[in-house]
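Private note to self, pasted from the team thread so I don't lose it. Backbone tokens:
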């Protein structure tokens, strides 16, 4: 069984990495392609980006139930086909209705793929190996996105729409490769999900059951703040702050983003060895502290007017510190969602958390762009420092709700069985 689980997990991870590689081809260039290359204007480009988020918000509440009723594999395959159609459609679209419709298909497909893949990883891992499995997924995603972005940058030519069609076609093929990879996976029934397909009655009460789980509700609140204060600021508020307040060149912003990816790639497995035996709640609290320092560095970068070099170093350090924090979260948050879920509602819990992430990614850029656009630079940094401190507070509070097995699963797995009447063993850091 362990060998079968390992083979299935490797196939899932490989397909996911190739999909991320294809996605990296188009993510940095989508706005420019729609607005300038296809000459559809900034408003249409904004609508395309909005449709990616809106379609995800629409399908995610339905995705969890589909995963729990049908299993994650067919749901993931449907998602890859939708994403491939949407990606190729964007590349071939020359009118506003066509490109918006394609964006809906792409956004819905990607939204469906994420919780389905997360559930497949849960099925193919154990409590002891789950953190490493999710850390590997995060590492390969970022590596694929980074390499895809670099290769795509060498192929793109804003004077020729055909070069962008090529990029979107490559992305579509990579989604289909992911679909083919997971379609041939033989999913084992790991102990955590031995009752993986619920009855109709269970599915109907899925949302009620989840909202009744105060640990999951608290984790969703924490997740919203996490994604709002980091990912929700990368492409809007922080980028605007960097160029308008710190006054770095756009090319330097690319270096900062590269520093973020490099920090993740370099730190991921070093960090994993340090955190997989620690309490998850305290690891998340540490992320809050690291991001507090990151936002302070960003704030200082806007105050150092005498030395542009120092300001630039501070700003790049902000992105690198975010990367270190992200590498701490990858083996922590997603495995915790899985371990909180009842066996028959793993898909529902994964989809709910993906929905929270999507909401934060929709709200975060809007708030960041609005505050920076209105000159509220100090208030912007102060808000995000408060959010980062709040992450630590929320994480420690969540830790008091979790059982030792949920907060520190590696320790719980390795503890010897206790004799009847013996004193309970507490899991420490």
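Design output:
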């Amino acid at each position: 069984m362990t060998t079968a689980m390992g083979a299935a997990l490797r196939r899932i991870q490989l397909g996911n990495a190739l999909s991320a590689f294809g996605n990296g081809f188009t993510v940095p260039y989508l706005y420019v392609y729609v607005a300038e290359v296809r000459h559809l204007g900034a408003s249409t480009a904004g609508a395309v980006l909005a449709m990616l988020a809106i379609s995800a918000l629409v399908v995610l509440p339905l995705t969890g139930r589909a995963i729990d009723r049908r299993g994650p594999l067919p749901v993931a395959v449907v998602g890859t086909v939708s994403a491939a159609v949407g990606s190729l459609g964007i590349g071939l679209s020359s009118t506003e209705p066509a490109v918006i419709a394609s964006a809906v298909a792409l956004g819905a497909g990607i939204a469906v793929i994420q919780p389905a893949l997360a559930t497949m990883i849960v099925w193919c891992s154990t409590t002891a190996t789950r953190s490493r499995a999710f850390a590997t997924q995060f590492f390969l995603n970022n590596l694929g996105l980074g390499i895809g972005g670099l290769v795509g940058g060498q192929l793109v030519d804003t004077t020729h729409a055909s070069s962008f069609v090529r990029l979107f076609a490559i992305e579509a093929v990579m989604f289909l490769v992911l679909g083919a990879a997971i379609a041939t996976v033989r999913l084992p029934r790991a102990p955590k999900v031995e009752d993986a397909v619920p009855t109709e009655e269970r599915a109907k009460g899925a949302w009620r059951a989840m909202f009744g789980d105060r640990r999951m509700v608290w984790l969703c609140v924490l997740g919203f703040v996490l994604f709002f204060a980091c990912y929700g600021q990368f492409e809007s508020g922080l980028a605007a702050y960097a160029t308008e307040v710190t006054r770095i060149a756009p090319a330097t912003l690319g270096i900062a983003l590269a520093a973020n990816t490099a920090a993740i790639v370099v730190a991921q497995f070093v960090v994993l060895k340090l955190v997989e035996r620690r309490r998850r709640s305290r690891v998340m609290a540490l992320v809050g502290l690291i991001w507090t320092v990151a936002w302070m560095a960003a704030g200082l970068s806007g105050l150092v007017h005498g030395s542009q070099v120092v300001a630039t170093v501070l700003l790049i350090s902000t992105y690198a510190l975010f990367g270190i924090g992200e590498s701490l979260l990858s083996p922590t948050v997603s495995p915790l969602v899985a371990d909180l879920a009842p066996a028959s509602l793993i898909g529902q819990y994964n989809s709910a958390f993906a929905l929270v992430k999507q909401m934060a990614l929709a709200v975060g850029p809007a708030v960041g762009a609005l505050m920076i656009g209105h000159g509220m630079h100090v208030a912007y940094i102060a808000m995000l420092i408060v959010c980062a401190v709040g992450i630590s507070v929320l994480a420690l509070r969540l830790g008091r709700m979790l059982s030792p097995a949920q907060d520190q699963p590696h320790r719980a797995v390795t503890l010897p069985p206790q004799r009847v009447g013996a004193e309970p063993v507490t899991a420490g850091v």
